[in-house]
Specification:
Length: about 130
């Protein structure tokens, strides 16, 4: 009589390897996914135009690195600048104001100026920038 050997049992498949792959994919997609809040409506940011000529006319406000301001090359305090711009808007309601801020100027100076221009009713504000070198 010949006895047969029973075939060796194969080990049951473990799901540990599958768990590792799923965890790796989860971490991967969390890292590359976008986690910032999105607006609940469509937002179209402003586009910058380089190489364009500045609009003619209007007023030019310069902001120095230390926050000092000048209107058309004449240094002024904030109140005097606001008064001068207010009378300029009264003369020309379609006034264009160019803002030329030094790269080291703090943003709070530019934001305060744009807020004041908005209160005065200025519709067109041109921010003068220098493009990065290629």
């Amino acid at each position: 009589m010949k006895l047969r050997r029973t075939p060796p049992r194969t080990e049951p498949e473990t799901i540990v390897a599958l768990i590792d792959v799923v965890l790796f994919l989860l971490i991967f997609f969390m890292l590359i996914g976008r986690m910032d809040a999105t607006a609940p409506f469509m937002v179209f940011p402003a586009t910058a135009q380089t190489g364009q000529n500045l609009p003619a006319g209007g007023e030019t406000v310069s902001i120095a690195g230390d926050g000092m301001m000048a209107l058309n090359g004449h240094e002024m305090t904030g109140d005097a600048l606001r008064q001068a711009l207010s009378s300029a808007v009264a003369r020309d309601p379609a006034l264009v104001v160019r803002i030329n801020a030094h790269r080291d100027a703090e943003l709070r100076h530019t934001l305060a100026l744009t807020g004041a221009l908005d209160e005065l009713g200025v519709k067109d504000i041109v921010l003068i920038v220098t493009p990065k070198e290629p």
